[in-house]
Every structure is written in C-alpha cells, then in structure tokens.
Amino acid sequence: MIFFKIIRRVIAAILLVVIAVPLYAVALTWHAANNPLTRNGDVIVVLGAAQLDGRPGEVLQARLDEAKRIYDLGLAPRIITVGAGAPGDRTTEAASGKYWLTTNGVKSKNVTALEVGRDTWVSTENYVKFMKLKKMKDVIIVTDPFHCRRAMTMANDLGVVATCSPVQTGPNSLDNSGKRYLIRETGAYLSYVSLGRRGIHISDHLG
C-alpha cells in the first residue's frame, strides 16, 4: 500500500509540474505584453522583421513607428536596428529600418544598423556586444507584445537591463494578436529558459 501511495504522489507531482509550469509561462508572457514597463534607457533596439526590397513589411513598420514614437519622447538618445537579409535580398532588415528612421526625422548619426541575425537569440547577442563596447547598460526593446518577455529575458541574461515598448499598431499588436501567437511565444520562452540557458538554442526564425 505504501508503495502505491508513493507512486500516486509521484504521478500527482509530475502532473502538477506539467500543468503548472506552462501556465506560469503563459502568465508571464501575457503579463509582459499587457503591462509593459518602459523607462529611460541608453538605447532603443528595434528587433528585425521582414522587409520587402528595402521597404519595411507590416510587422517591421509597426516596430519602427513605435521606436520613433519613444525616441521623440526622449526615452533614449540612440536607436539600433538589427536583422540580416534572406538569401537573394538586396538589403537587410537592419538597413531598411535605418533608412526609414533617417528619412522620417531621426538623425543618421543616432541610428546604428547591425545587419546580423535572423532570430531573436543571434540578434540579442550582437546588439548586447555592441552595447557593451559603447558602455551602454539600459536598453528599450521594441517588438511585438507577446515577444517582450522572451526578448527581455535574453537581454537580461546577457548582462544588460532591459525593458520593452511593445508595438501599438500592426498585425502583431495586442488588438490583432490571437491566442496562437501567445501560445507560440510561451513555447519559445519555455524552450529558451529550459534549453537556451544551457547553450542549446532553437531558432525562432519563421520562413
């Protein structure tokens, strides 16, 4: 009888973990999206998204709009755009982002394009390296609401202080995002904290 009681308790504990951990991750992802904490920083980072022959796609455009908005509010004096290009592209996500910003009122000297990375981890590694070279410590990440938690966690793990300013418009804004995006980002967050922190990185790049 004691043996079966122990087995039942072990099974109950396993089920609790299997259910509770994903629910906790969902709560963290949802909370970061719905309760953004944005404070002044050294730099704004615009995470990359698709561009179309130099013209930002809808997702990237929404991120650039948000970056410009908080830049104009004076929350940070510099902007970094990140993102490489797909095979065959004539330009990159970072370059198209910088071009849009500098043709819409941001001084070119205040925008740096880091033309590397087609997923969150590689992009984060590279902009954090750049920040450290420039003695920057505080970053405001501009991305989609449900992407904020994971993006901030990666940046914090690499030694900078991160907040997030999520997009307010576009296909991935809160008004337009569905449960699928929340679930996908929750899974990606769990993948990062369970595997990524151990050096096993699964790309989140969507073709």
The poorly predicted ranges are none
CATH A-level architecture: 3-Layer(aba) Sandwich
Radius of gyration: 19 Å
Helix and strand string, N-terminal first?
HEEEHEHEHEHEH
CATH class call = Alpha Beta
The main sheet orders its strands as 5-4-1-6-7
CATH fold type: Rossmann fold
Kindly state the number of beta strands.
7
Count of individual domains: 1
Distance linking N and C termini: 54 Å
The total count of helices amounts to 6
Mean model confidence by pLDDT: 91
Largest sheet: 5 strands, parallel
Q: What does the overall shape look like?
A: elongated
Classify the beta-strand content into a percent band: 5-15%
Write a brief structural summary.
It contains six helices and seven strands, in the order H-E-E-E-H-E-H-E-H-E-H-E-H. It has helices at residues 2-34, 58-72, 93-102, 120-133, 148-157, 179-194, and strands spanning 43-46, 51-52, 55-56, 79-82, 111-114, 138-142, 161-164.
Entry keywords:
207 residues; alpha/beta; Rossmann fold; 5-stranded parallel sheet; two-stranded antiparallel ribbon; 6 helices; 7 strands; 12% strand
How are the SSEs placed, and which strands pair?
Blueprint: H1 2-34, E1 43-46, E2 51-52, E3 55-56, H2 58-72, E4 79-82, H3 93-102, E5 111-114, H4 120-133, E6 138-142, H5 148-157, E7 161-164, H6 179-194
Parallel strand pairs: 1-4, 1-6, 4-5, 6-7
Antiparallel strand pairs: 2-3
What does this protein look like?
With 207 residues, this protein is of the alpha/beta class. The protein has a single domain, classed as 3-Layer(aba) Sandwich (Rossmann fold). It is built from six helices and seven strands. It has helices at residues 2-34, 58-72, 93-102, 120-133, 148-157, 179-194, and strands at 43-46, 51-52, 55-56, 79-82, 111-114, 138-142, 161-164. A five-stranded parallel β-sheet has the order 5-4-1-6-7. A two-stranded antiparallel sheet has the order 2-3. Strand 6 (138-142), helix 5 (148-157) and strand 7 form a beta-alpha-beta unit.
